[in-house]
Amino acid sequence: MTQTDAARSRAGATPGTAGTGGPRVAAVTERLVTAIATGQYLPGSRLPPERDLAAALGAGRMTVRAALAHLARRGLIETHRGRHGGSFVLQQWPDSSTEIVGRTLSATYAQLRDLCEAIARLHGAVCRAAAEHRSPADLERIEAALEVYAAAGSGLASQQADSALHLALIDAAHNDTLRRVLADLEGQLSIGAPAHLWGAPEGMHAMEARALREHRDLVAAVAGRRADDAERIARAHVAIDLELLSAALARTGALPAGTPTAP
Hints:
The chain is mainly alpha-helical.
């Protein structure tokens, strides 16, 4: 972040609030704070350009720019100018984000649960198709992506390797319609559909280890052309997204007792 940007970021910071700029700026700010907290964008990752965020959020670029300025003031991101610049995530879930995350997720939890169920079902269909239609070249790519995931470090590297593996599975299905529908649904869950949710830092290692076990089972099913198993494993695996959202909401103290946490 430049000196001018840093000075602007320090000016007028108000801990624990979404900031000023009107209700639309506040709403976009809170959605971005929640996206970062729940692991859509992990520390070190680069947010999409303003124009892409604006399209994904259904907001104007000036609104997005103002929201990003609020995130910078909160210490969640820093902005670099120039050819290789952009907005980069600094920290995931400071205490000041908790109230916002609880308010945002509790207001949308029912819709998010339905969306996660639809995504899990569609991933099941995609992996069934991959088991039925994958070529030897597809399988080689899938198995290579699995090895990259197994060797990746925790956090951003693991999330990026996970994305590459799921993309290889989607490509192996050889169905452009399934691809488009899945991308649309995932774009509604994750701003810009960067990757699957990665959760809060305290549970990340356990989640990554579980995901590796499930990845291996899924790849084995696709390799063996066991379509029923591939569909079942994929559906259960992608349900991790809802579990992570539920855990985030529970962390804020806003998850109602007895709320189902899996589709």
